[in-house]
Amino acid sequence: MNAHVTIALDELIQLKADARGFTFLPRQPVNSLLSGRHASRLRGRGLAFEELRQYRPGDDIRTMDWRATARLRSPHVRVYSEERERPVLLLVDQRRPMFFGSRRAMKSVAAAEIAALGAWRALAAGDRVGGIVFNDDEIIDLPPHRSQARVLRLLHEVVRLNQALVGSMYSPNSSQVPLNQILQAALRRATHDHLVVLVSDLDGADDETQRLATLLAAHNDMLVVAIYDPLGASLQGSPGMLATDRGTTFEVPLGNEFTASFQRAFSVLLYQWTEIFSALQVPVLPIACTESPAEQLRNLFGQRLATR
Known about the structure:
Blueprint: H1 9-14, E1 47-54, H2 66-72, E2 76-82, E3 87-93, H3 107-124, E4 128-134, E5 139-145, H4 148-168, H5 179-189, E6 195-200, H6 207-219, E7 221-228, H7 230-233, E8 242-245, E9 248-251, H8 256-279, E10 284-288, H9 293-300
Parallel strand pairs: 3-4, 3-6, 6-7, 7-10
Antiparallel strand pairs: 1-2, 4-5, 8-9
Helix pairs in contact: 3-4, 5-6
């Protein structure tokens, strides 16, 4: 079965119907990837200070503001209201390394689908939605806004960069946007109390990536959706098979030695970044581009749709 090479806007709009059966809120099902240690890391909406007013019979004594009471010489309480929205910032990778897929869809297509599912889910929950969409040449920064128009604008940019990948594979690598540049842009946008969702294969991640992720996670919630293709984790050479890495084309060596070496390198890299993000209490959601992203999200978040 051939891989879905690019995606269209109407396909991402149709995913609105599939954006259910999972949640980014702190209380997760016991079998969710975000349950237990990770559950407390997601702050949810919390409470926002609304006003300071005089005490009334029936007010919770725990809301008493003792400093204001002493200063004003009459009982005063602090009134809070539940925050009804939270900014969600989607970082969507559409660089050349994402243009790979053995079946069902390219990694770049899976990333676009995840972005759409996350955007529709966040909007339905009453959150503001924005994003940073990027390829090797462009960075589109859209501030979070609570509107369907903002989601559609975000998805439009995702589709535009996704479809541009076809032509970019035949052009020289004139410039490359590193992953760290995107995290720096996210730091400028998400100053505090955002949910930052990085959707990428983490190509080009290094020690600086860890430092920037640490800064992001210090004042925001963060999720990493790691897009991968199972063939990319277990590459076997065949006669005449060519591979391209950052503009350099070479013939894939034959034999079990190369396959074993490739698998070891992939496993080491995967383990390294899983450990790094775990230390930061940043959940990592592995999504295979060979399967339905919506179904994988529901499984990872521990919520399956009820059978009709």
